[in-house]
Write a structure and sequence with these properties.
Layout (H helix, E strand, L loop, with lengths): L50 H33 L6 H10 L1 H20 L14
Length: 134
């Protein structure tokens, strides 16, 4: 790439000193005024990013993080209640299970399926030991 003329630069001494690419060559900002490429754009293949896949992955990650946060807060509350002789979570859950046994069964099955899926599911994707898609 040809560096811009000194007259085109907003400040004559504003050459991109120290801006080098992976090959060690000097780089210049040649796309001044153009739209920047989208985040995640693959320069080698020219493929645009798969935003939907990345967005769903981020959403799933935040949901799992929130779930573990709620579980942690529940354990903190249970510990506090047992140590201070207050009413623990069990005293709230047991009457609800007796009042709505069908809902309790459905919730238990859903939690069991989700835990089973994540703990004993197929090993593929980003979290697999081999790190490759199968």
């Amino acid at each position: 790439m040809v560096p811009p003329n000194a007259a085109e630069r907003p400040y004559p001494d504003s050459a991109n000193h120290g801006c080098r690419n992976a090959d060690g060559k000097q780089t210049y900002n040649s796309n001044r005024g153009e739209q920047p490429e989208p985040l995640g754009f693959n320069h080698e293949t020219g493929d645009p990013p798969n935003l939907m896949k990345r967005t769903l992955g981020n959403l799933f990650s935040w949901l799992v993080t929130a779930l573990f946060g709620v579980i942690f807060l529940g354990l903190v509350f249970e510990s506090w209640a047992l140590l201070t002789n207050n009413k623990p979570i069990t005293d709230y859950i047991r009457p609800a299970v007796h009042a709505y046994p069908g809902w309790a069964f459905v919730i238990a099955v859903v939690i069991g399926v989700l835990l089973g899926h994540f703990l004993w599911g197929p090993a593929r994707g980003r979290t697999s030991p081999s790190g490759t898609e199968k």
